[in-house]
Specification:
mainly alpha, 22 helices, antiport, Malate-2H(+)/Na(+)-lactate antiporter, transmembrane helix, cell membrane, antiporter activity
């Protein structure tokens, strides 16, 4: 009977996963804005039947959980506005053109594609937008220079995820930090060296994999000339921001348009609060865009880009977060995850063991839900409470552990998604790649076979956490015994 009750309490997660993956029938799922509310209402029903939690109390719990992440909503609105300004004023195009100016060969198209998409994703805060903008260029460049298609497509896939994991304006970076109660700026400084080492390692591996390929070279302009009108029409419908960036790449923008990106990274490292970093980045892009001619006027910039960014954030990601955060609150209220927490604590004998299991829970949740944001807001509160309730340490060390949890949620969400064939990430990449490069029949596994960035990031994070070798990475070391110890009588996550 107890086992049935445990399964019933977890059934809202199963419902959420089914709605996302196949709720419409025919293998097609609902958007999170439908799946989230339905799962929340069902969770309230289960909470009433199993724990006697009244509907009014369930609603109050859901609302209280949302209150805890209100600051994240403001950061997200600013982040979307800055992403739009960087995409449309020429910051992203200047970055791409700078890398393509010398021409690429089959030996360099994949490693350079990795770096370009990594930098562009940091600048724009979107892996999907970065992939949509860069896939037409790099896949056709690869075609012209006779490179290895799967190596190239995996390189730009991994690079596009880089900024989603560490970008100041990435929604997953912002949300995963907010869920764990840490500052985005602190999080970027904390994992910065590790992230760059992962990128450098991946670059070297791609360079080695491409060493035996032809030396024939081509330019970005040649690649753009090969892009069909059907591809451009597809991007105009699906990703107009990516099309605008592509057109700027074709037409050219002044090289000084990379300055806003460099400026924002510099002030972030200097410790300027997140919202101020974003605001300064927006105005830097506007000021230089006025000089470059990519911004028509201040009113047009504010209404067409900044206001649109605020509206875009409010129309999906913020609303989605509210529903899923409420869902997580109700699930925690009825202690649905307590058996899972008990198992993790039973298997953990040291702080590093518990933290490693938190990483495993994150990637397992991502595989189950097939949506990185759903994983972040559902599993995030569980791993936070496991740490706060069961590890004794100073407040400073507790904050460091929450930083690691935020890194788990984001890295296992973004890079883990690229290693899960049924994930919405992979489905999106297959759709975009197939549309912009129709001469090849892309399959989900094509994006995993050479996804060196995903394997390096996920694998290194698990190994460094478990072994304690993270202390060899500057700023990335995690508190350990005797400074941080597991409580003798552990409390399980509520």
């Amino acid at each position: 009977m107890k086992a049935l009750k445990i399964i019933f309490k977890l059934s809202p997660v199963a419902l959420l996963a089914w709605l996302l993956l196949a709720g419409k029938g025919g293998g097609e799922g609902f958007d999170m804005l439908i799946a989230g509310p339905l799962a929340l209402m069902y969770a309230g029903f289960v909470a009433y039947l199993t724990e006697g939690i009244k509907p009014a109390d369930a609603i109050e719990t859901a609302v209280e959980n949302v209150r805890g992440i209100q600051l994240v909503f403001f950061i997200l609105m600013m982040a979307y506005a800055m992403a739009g300004s960087f995409m449309q004023t020429g910051v992203g195009a200047a970055t791409v053109n700078l890398a393509l100016s010398a021409g690429l060969s089959a030996k360099t198209v994949a490693p350079v594609g990795l770096l370009v998409t990594a930098i562009l994703s940091v600048a724009t805060g979107t892996s999907w937008g970065t992939f949509a903008a860069c896939a037409p260029i790099f896949l056709w460049l690869n075609h012209i220079v006779e490179g290895n298609l799967l190596i190239t497509v995996c390189a730009i896939t991994g690079g596009a995820g880089f900024g989603d994991n560490i970008g100041l304006i990435s929604d997953t970076t912002v949300v995963s930090s907010g869920i764990q109660g840490v500052e985005v700026i602190d999080r970027i400084r904390y994992q910065g060296v590790w992230s760059i080492l992962c990128l450098a390692t991946t670059f070297i591996i791609f360079f080695a994999l491409s060493a035996g390929l032809p030396a024939k070279s081509a330019t970005g302009a040649e690649a753009y000339a090969n892009i069909s009108q059907e591809t451009l029409d597809f991007l105009a419908e699906k990703r107009p921001d990516a099309l605008a960036l592509l057109q700027q790449v074709r037409d050219g923008v002044p090289v000084y348009m990379v300055i806003p990106l460099v400026f924002v990274v510099a002030i972030a490292i200097a410790g300027v609060p997140t919202i101020f970093c974003l605001a300064l980045g927006i105005f830097a892009a506007m000021a230089l865009g006025l000089v470059a001619g990519t911004v028509e006027s201040v009113p047009a910039f504010l209404e067409d880009i900044v206001q649109s960014g605020f509206a875009d954030a409010g129309s999906w990601v913020i609303v989605m977060m509210m529903w899923i955060s409420g869902f997580g609150g109700v699930m925690n209220k009825m202690k649905a995850f307590q058996p899972l927490a008990d198992l993790v604590l039973k298997l953990s004998h040291r702080v590093r063991g518990l933290m490693t299991w938190n990483a495993v829970l994150s990637i397992a949740g991502n595989a189950l839900l097939a949506d990185e944001m759903a994983q972040i807001v559902t599993v995030g509160p569980i791993i936070r409470e496991l740490v706060e309730e069961n590890i004794e340490c100073s407040e400073e060390d507790q904050y460091s552990l929450r930083l690691r949890n935020a890194t788990f949620g984001d890295a296992m969400g973004v890079f883990g998604a690229q290693l899960i064939p049924w994930h919405v990430y992979i489905a999106y990449y297959v759709g975009i790649a197939s549309a912009v490069y129709p001469v090849y029949d892309f399959q989900p596994t094509d994006f995993i076979r050479y996804n060196i960035m995903g394997f390096v990031a996920v694998g290194s994070l698990l190994i460094l956490t478990f072994t304690g070798l993270d202390r060899m990475v500057p700023l990335f070391g995690m508190p350990h015994e005797p400074e941080a110890v597991l409580r003798k009588q552990p409390k399980t996550a509520a």
